[in-house]
Amino acid sequence: MTSRPVIWFPRKLSEATLARARSTYDVIVNEADTPGTAEAIIAMSAQVDAMVPCHSEHFSADVVAALDPRLKIVANHSVGVDHCDLPALKARGITVTNTPDVLSDATAEIAMLLMLGAARRAVEGDALVRDGKWSDWSPAFMVGKQVSGARLGIIGMGRVGRAFAEKARGFGMDIHYHNRTRLVEADEHGATYHPTLETLLPEVDFISLHCPATPETTDLINTTTLAKMRDGAVLVNTARGALVDEDALIAALSSGKISAAGLDCFKVEPGGNPQFAQFPQVMMLPHIGSATRATRDAMGFRALDNLDAFFAGKDPRDRLV
Ligand code: 8YV
Fold first, then answer.
1. 55 lines ligand 1 (CB under 6 A)
2. Model pTM?
3. What are 274-303's pLDDT values in tens digits?
4. Residue 237 CB–ligand 1 contact under 6 Å
5. For the chain, does the N or the C end have fewer beta carbons within 10 angstroms?
6. Residue having the nearest C-alpha atom to atom 5 of ligand 1
7. 20 counts as catalytic
């Protein structure tokens, strides 16, 4: 009998994922479920053939250079791969995969929750009732911004952006988008394409970020781009904290240029940016875009599908390098 490949799970993935993995592979799970440190990743690379990390494990150039040649594949349990230095992994001959598609709806749901919560003052309203401070009502009380019929600007029209556009169309929103390339007409469903941010930003009432974090998109939302937005625009970020210059956003919230924001991602994670807590019009979540039972299972299974293909000598469906 040939020996089974050994797989390391630095985080505790769903029970269904780990059960399926154990049926095919020898599995090592970090039962403590703490983020895999550089030292742990390097040490484990000598003991395993594959790793299934989350975005909490960083494969920087330094880490990749120190990996043991035994490690053959990094099958990410995430769609974003900004935690992986892909050129460095490619140079070491290590295959890298991700888990696209399966988390688009869950992430779009969280974007919708944040957009509605920011627009309709959910944090403020919840605190009033929760703290027993709701003592009055009038037609002018807690008036928010209506989503239905408003213009939504989506930056990054990949799978998650398109899933969010579909949900927003259900709210009667007029969709505008910016993407490196224009979608084919059938995929636009009537959305208006903007080849540059310059034309998109002044046209929309709500802006939602759905592009990957790359050197080109770092601080995409900054003092200059914020100034181009409509007065009182609402910003939603369920993509990556790296996309937003947080100091610039705090200044725009203070001045009222941005009337509200919904944030699931921050520059520093875990933790977030305590400066945002001064704004009741900012709704915040701790990076839980894909955190549903169904999606966790689907992400785990997609990562295992990639491993199964790789160890069967086939090209994994979601191979990146
Ligand atoms: C996850 C994510 O929370 O897929 C991504 O890129 O940011 C999230 O879905 C995380 O990476 C799960 O491993």
1. yes
2. 0.97
3. 999 999 999 999 999 999 999 999 999 999
4. no
5. N
6. 78
7. no
